[in-house]
From TrEMBL:
<dbReference type="Pfam" id="PF13561">
    <property type="entry name" value="adh_short_C2"/>
</dbReference>
<keyword id="KW-0560">Oxidoreductase</keyword>
<comment type="similarity">
    <text>Belongs to the short-chain dehydrogenases/reductases (SDR) family.</text>
</comment>
<dbReference type="InterPro" id="IPR002347">
    <property type="entry name" value="SDR_fam"/>
</dbReference>
<protein>
    <submittedName>
        <fullName>3-ketoacyl-ACP reductase</fullName>
    </submittedName>
</protein>
<keyword id="KW-0520">NAD</keyword>
<dbReference type="InterPro" id="IPR036291">
    <property type="entry name" value="NAD(P)-bd_dom_sf"/>
</dbReference>
<dbReference type="GO" id="GO:0016616">
    <property type="term" value="F:oxidoreductase activity, acting on the CH-OH group of donors, NAD or NADP as acceptor"/>
</dbReference>
<dbReference type="InterPro" id="IPR023985">
    <property type="entry name" value="SDR_subfam_1"/>
</dbReference>
Length: 283
């Protein structure tokens, strides 16, 4: 099947690398044009490297290599005014907006981080999602799709407890799940659907960071990738340490396409059974 989102334009936050880049490429392969947003900077409170302007430029080149159009913007999703300007410019350039993928997020783990990191994390992972939806909404019409990136951590009672960044991450992702349910009710009469995708461990730079490795292997002073693979796998039922960004993108592509035209308020888990292993079974 090809052309599943042909003629559509998608706003993707956190598009410079990781899941965001994967989403951009997946949608571009199926005919969509992309408004790509990323901070491409290193706030002083972050304790692992974020994306760079070079990463965003690489995403641009990859989308263009698929014959897709892309409008890139270096913007912090916490800055609603700048984000609105970027989206307005992207819509002016590409002609419309049909899909919102509110994906940008951070996870600065560490027990010794300052308390302010909690607020910075929530501002990015929850307020940033709301900002992206808010500034996009005036451009969306019937049939539009809004997709927010949640997390396994937002659906477990215990969440992530490693310092203010960890607890802020879990709080924000719980908020994303709640936001999706409430907003789906509000926007359903306009035929705009709202869903969330909740990844487990995902093979991205966020997972492969020194603070994350230390959480999974606190017994080692300086754990490396090879040291944490078994620990990663121990959190899931399926025998893998993580899912790939493309696995999340497959879910995002479905929710972006008209194949999901009557799917709204969905909390779609792509976690290799991590929630089941944690005892969260639902119905």
């Amino acid at each position: 099947m090809t052309g599943r989102v042909a003629g559509k334009v998608a706003l993707i936050t956190g598009a410079a690398r990781g899941q965001g880049r994967s989403h951009a490429l997946a949608l571009a392969r199926e005919g969509a044009d992309i408004i790509a947003v990323d901070i491409c900077a290193q706030p002083e409170w972050m304790n692992y490297p974020l994306a760079t302007p070079g990463d965003l430029a690489e995403t641009v080149d990859m989308v263009k290599g698929l014959d897709g159009r892309i409008s890139p913007h270096i913007v912090d999703v916490r800055d609603k005014t700048a984000l609105a300007d970027a989206v307005d410019a992207g819509v002016a350039e590409l002609g419309r907006l049909d899909i919102v993928i509110a994906n940008a997020g951070v996870c600065p783990l560490g027990e010794n981080e300052p308390e302010s990191v909690w607020l910075e994390t929530v501002s990015t992972n929850l307020t940033g999602v709301m900002n992206a939806i808010d500034v996009a909404l005036p451009h969306l019409g019937a049939g539009a799709s809004i997709i927010a990136t949640g997390s396994f951590a937002g659906l477990t009672p215990q969440g992530v407890k490693n310092g203010p960044g960890g607890t802020g991450y879990s709080y924000a992702k719980r908020g994303v799940a709640s936001l999706v349910n409430s907003l789906a009710i509000q926007l359903g009469p306009r035929n705009i659907r709202v869903n969330a995708v909740h990844p487990g461990n995902c093979n991205t730079p966020m997972l492969h960071s020194a603070p994350m490795y230390k959480v999974f292997r606190p017994d080692l002073d300086d754990p490396k990738r090879e040291d944490v693979l078994d620990a990663f796998a121990s959190t899931q039922i399926m025998p893998v340490p993580y899912v790939e960004p493309e696995d999340i993108s497959n879910a995002v592509l479905f929710l972006s396409s008209d194949e999901s035209r009557y799917v709204t308020g969905l909390q779609l888990k792509v976690d290799a059974g991590a929630l089941l292993k944690a005892g969260v079974t639902g119905l």
